[in-house]
Write a structure and sequence with these properties.
- It is a single chain.
- The protein has two helices and no strands.
- The chain is an all-alpha fold.
- It has a domain of 34 residues.
C-alpha cells in the first residue's frame, strides 16, 4: 500500500487518511457519469458525509 500510495496521497497528505472533499466527490461523480456508471440525474451528494472526513487521521504517525 505504501509503494502504490494507496492511503497516503492526494488530500490525505495534509488532511488525513480517508479524506474526501465535496469537490473531489463531485469530480468522481462526473467521471462516473461520463463512464456511464452513474445516471446523469444521480444525486451524488447523498452518497457521502464529510462530518467525519479530513480530520487529520494518521498525520501524527508520519515520519517525514
Amino acid at each position: 500500500m505504501k509503494h502504490y500510495r494507496i492511503v497516503d496521497s492526494g488530500d490525505a497528505l495534509d488532511k488525513g487518511i480517508g479524506c474526501i472533499t465535496v469537490e473531489r466527490y463531485k469530480w468522481l461523480a462526473e467521471e462516473l457519469i461520463t463512464a456511464k456508471l452513474f445516471k446523469p440525474d444521480t444525486d451524488y451528494t447523498k452518497a457521502f458525509d464529510t462530518r467525519f472526513s479530513c480530520k487529520g487521521v494518521g498525520l501524527r504517525l508520519k515520519t517525514s
